[in-house]
């Protein structure tokens, strides 16, 4: 594996009926104790696991429904404040997922996203580039690759689910953040665009690191350098380059189902 890009030690995360209350608890040292459930309205989802992502790698995240994949990506995206960790480092320095300097290094595409619905793709792209302090890049190749030519000036709210997904994926690949997080990027795409997506994910190593979740084994075996199998909020198994094959991953998922 190359240099570490992101390391997270002993990550736990939970949902809480009152996230404000959870935030206040996080501010008071020692208030939160280790354990499965701390309050009756807390639901522990990620349980005390550590992981690392290397620079310039493609990492796949797979697991049964409810394993915690989206929750994990939400934590890394700064969208879930109710988590704790014994240490988070980005490029060797401690990092806060909610701080601007980290945000500028990552971009996330969520499985479903209805935000910016009154923007067209072109407007959204311009907005995001301004927010990340970048010039708007030439996206014509990506637009062609994702067969998106007809939709660049349509309001996102008027696009089909798959085309809206493409708008966010094109933005992500054009922006080229150091860390790209994709939650179920294959979902909703037609087969032509799916193949193009696999090419984009595999080729992303040139620019940075991708962590993506998927239920489609092929998407993982064709693109990933490393695969994390998530089960009940824990990384149950990791497949390294050279060990990644559909049969073994399927078996790991079946074992998970049987436990
Ligand atoms: N907002 C929420 N409040 C409370 N519990 C939640 C919330 N969102 C998700 N959960 C719970 O967290 C657990 C993990 O859900 P998550 O969406 O992270 O799993 P996943 O692995 O992405 O599943 P899937 O493959 O179905 O998308 C599930 O038990 C789910 O019910």
UniProtKB/TrEMBL annotation:
GO MF term set: ATP binding; ATP hydrolysis activity
Key words of the record: ATP-binding, Nucleotide-binding, Transport
InterPro entries: AAA+_ATPase (IPR003593), ABC_transporter-like_ATP-bd (IPR003439), ABC_Transporter_VariousFunc (IPR051782), P-loop_NTPase (IPR027417)
Presence of keyword Lyase: no
Residue intervals of the ABC transporter domain: 26-257
Stored SMART domains: AAA
Entries under Pfam families matching the protein: ABC_tran
Gene3D superfamilies referenced in this protein's UniProt entry, alphabetically: P-loop containing nucleotide triphosphate hydrolases
Identification of the protein by name: ABC transporter ATP-binding protein AlbC
Naturally occurring in which organism (per UniProt): Acetatifactor muris
Highest classification ranks of the organism: Bacteria, Bacillati, Bacillota, Clostridia, Lachnospirales
């Amino acid at each position: 594996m190359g240099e570490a890009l992101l390391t997270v030690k002993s990550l736990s995360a939970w949902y809480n009926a009152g996230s404000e209350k959870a935030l206040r608890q996080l501010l008071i040292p020692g208030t939160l104790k280790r354990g499965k459930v701390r309050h009756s309205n807390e639901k522990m989802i990620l349980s005390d696991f550590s992981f690392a992502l290397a620079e310039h790698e493609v990492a796949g995240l797979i697991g049964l429904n409810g394993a915690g994949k989206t929750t994990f990506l939400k934590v890394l995206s700064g969208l879930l404040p109710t988590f704790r960790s014994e240490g988070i480092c980005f490029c060797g320095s401690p990092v806060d997922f909610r701080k601007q300097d980290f945000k500028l290094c990552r971009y996330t595409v969520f499985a479903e996203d209805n935000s910016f619905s009154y923007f067209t793709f072109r407007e959204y792209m311009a907005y995001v580039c301004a927010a990340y302090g970048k010039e708007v890049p030439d996206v014509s190749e990506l637009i062609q690759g994702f067969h998106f030519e007809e939709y660049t000036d349509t309001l996102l709210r008027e696009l089909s689910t798959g085309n809206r997904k493409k708008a966010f994926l094109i933005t992500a690949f054009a922006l080229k953040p150091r860390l790209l997080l994709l939650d179920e990027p294959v979902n909703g795409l037609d087969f032509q665009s799916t193949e193009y997506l696999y090419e984009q994910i595999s080729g992303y190593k040139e620019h940075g690191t991708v962590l993506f979740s998927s239920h489609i084994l092929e998407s993982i075996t064709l693109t990933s350098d490393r695969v994390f199998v998530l089960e009940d909020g824990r990384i149950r198994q990791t497949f390294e380059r050279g060990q990644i094959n559909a049969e073994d991953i399927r078996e790991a998922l079946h074992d998970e189902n049987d436990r």
